Amino acid sequence: MPAATNRADLIAVCEKEFDRLQSLLGKLSETLAMSPDEDGVSARDIIAHRAHWIDLFLGWYSDGQAGVEVFFPAKGYKWSELKSYNADLRAKQADMDWAAAQAALLAGHERLMWFLAKLDDDALYAAPMKGAKNDWPTGRWAEAAGASHYRSACKFIRARLRDGV
After folding, report:
1. What are phi and psi of 135, to 5 degrees?
2. Which of 18, 64, 83, 90 has a CA-to-CA distance to 122 between 20 and 30 Å?
């Protein structure tokens, strides 16, 4: 469930969840970050994935504003094919090292915060996001790409730290 209904709350929840994630990342060794779990997914994969999805969201918004077709979640994929999309994304990001994944996440978060700072409450919450083909406002999409993804990354990383594998 979304936590924010206005710009100030959205920025606050994104910053709070990002800070929590950054704190956990500081506890993660590079070896553990690069080590896959039983499903073949590593913390590096999760962090690189989160960075990528911020860029997807910003692209969706930009395309919608430009009046061009918005591909959800991405061109050639349907929402029902997310598992396949994410596996393909991991394959594309396979050569990314831990430092690059963290840098991509930080850069993505900074782009998201810059984006949120320039929109007002009406632009974020008054209407569905253009091109989204559903009733979610831009702010809800932004929260999904930011705070919600940060929260789920924290859950994954806490489990990896607990398992210590």
Report:
1. -100, 10
2. 18
Q: Look up residue 137 and give its two tokens.
A: 């406002």
Domain extents for the chain?
7-29+51-163
The model's pLDDT over 43-90, given as tens digits with 9 standing for 90+, comes to 999 999 999 999 999 999 999 999 999 998 899 999 899 899 999 999
Q: Report the predicted TM-score, pTM, of the whole model to 2 decimal places.
A: 0.92
Per-residue pLDDT tens digits for 96-122: 999 999 999 999 999 999 999 999 999
Hey, which residues does 137 pair with through a beta bridge? 128
The backbone region for 133, taken as left when phi is positive above 0, alpha when psi lies in -120 to 50, beta otherwise, is left
Residue 92 has which token pair? 């594309």
Written out in words, the top-level CATH class of the domain with range 7-29+51-163 is mainly alpha
